Amino acid sequence: LPELPEVETLRGDLAHVYVGRRLLRVVVTGRRTVRRHDPALLGQLEGLVLTSVGRLGKYLLLEWDDGQVLVAHLRMSGQMLSAQPGSAPLPHTHAVFVFSEVGELRFVDPRTFGELFVAERAGDNRVPGRAVKEIAHLGPDALELEERYLASALAGRRAPLKSLLVDQRVLAGIGNIYADEICFDARTRPDRPGGSLSRAQVRRLKTSVGAVLSAAIAGKGSSLRDQQYRDLYGQAGLYQAQHKVYGRSGEPCLRCGRAIERVMFGARSAYMCGACQH
Ligand SMILES: [Zn+2]
């Protein structure tokens, strides 16, 4: 499912096209897509101008000129696609936002796990999402990770490192794919207890989080065969061609040549190199 690099790619595209534009009309047809409140509440956004598009972890935050925030979470298969006005409807479209001048924004989601909801921005907290109580449980955004925070979040933890990296309360934005890529980059086993890393290993891990996520954003994210991630223009990401371990079971490690393996721990699994990750 979409992780930080995919959502960040979409965030940049959304900001580029829709910021400064006025929302003329909203049509919600997916009752499950807007499930936290009455779908008619989205009608309150009509007539407002979009002032910014923020992101916290995997959540998008579309802010309007009256202080309301439209929160979008893609989960498994959600897509936000631009469309020319009057172009053919797409199957699985659950909400349509009609903007002045730039056409429509469609929320498309075959599996309907994704969601949209309107939140009130409370206070003047500058960090995107921090003023939205529905997502207050999230840890810091993975792109804003600080070494001291990572060290304290891992200290004393017996849970496998990967389980902690994908726990959104610990760190927001990382999922299955990038956790494996980050552990490979840091030469650290994903199944070792989080609290067992040395200070130097924590430092290297922190560097790898930034390096892997930045490279994936530059590659416009990853689109896998079984996953419907598309950018605003319906294009697949490119970064899947650069995955070093994820989905490469049996293929040679790009560092040492040994076969990449898929290890199981608890209910989880991870792709890794048994020779160069410790
Ligand atoms: Zn290796």
Could you characterize the architecture of this molecule?
The structure is a single chain. The chain has 278 residues and is α+β, with helices and mostly antiparallel strands. Helices cover 21% and strands 21% of the residues. The strands form 3 sheets. It has a 4-stranded antiparallel sheet, with no helix packed on it. Strand 3 and strand 4 form a beta hairpin. It is globular and about 55 Å long. The two termini are 27 Å apart. Bound molecules: zinc ion (ZN). Zinc ion binds next to loops.
Task: Kindly summarize this structure in a few lines.
The chain has helices at 4-18, 147-154, 161-165, 176-185, 199-218; strands at 23-28, 50-56, 59-64, 68-73, 79-83, 93-99, 103-108, 115-120, 261-265, 268-272. The chain has 278 residues and is of the alpha+beta class. The strands form 3 sheets. A 4-stranded antiparallel beta sheet has the order 1-6-7-5, with no helix packed on it.
Please give the alpha-carbon distance between the first and last residues: 27 Å
Large-scale geometry: globular
- Could you say which structural class the secondary elements and strand pairing correspond to? alpha+beta
Q: Sketch the topology as an H/E string, one letter per element.
A: HEEEEEEEEHHHHEE
**Beta-strand percentage range:** 15-25%
Secondary structure: helix percent: 10-25%
**H/I helix tally:** 5
Largest sheet: 4 strands, antiparallel
Q: Give a list of the ligands.
A: zinc ion
Radius of gyration: 20 Å
Mean pLDDT: 95
What order do the strands of the largest sheet run in, or round the barrel if closed?
1-6-7-5
Q: Please tally the β strands and state the result.
A: 10
